[in-house]
Design brief:
The chain has a single domain, classed as Beta Barrel (Thrombin, subunit H), CATH 2.40.10.190. 5% of the residues lie in helices and 52% in strands. It has one helix at 30-33; strands at 2-10, 15-24, 40-44, 50-59, 64-69, 81-84.
Length: 85
Amino acid sequence: MEAVIVNFRRGRHRQNTRQIVIKVQGVKTIKDTEKLLKKAVSWTSPGGKEIKGTISASHGNSGCVRAIFERGLPGQALGQKVIVS
């Protein structure tokens, strides 16, 4: 299943690059996001390195989810695709 990185989770003064907001294709409601919890997520950099994470919670009412990665993602990851398995 494919998803797109929408944004970093952020506060007023700083952003957390380990916690990412993701929009999954075909998921429209909060009830659909319950099936995705604890699933694995991976992002591959243009250089070929893979950073893995897991889906931790839903985010908002439109079907977005939060994922926590093992280390921070770079800014170039915004708008790119990730694989949910």
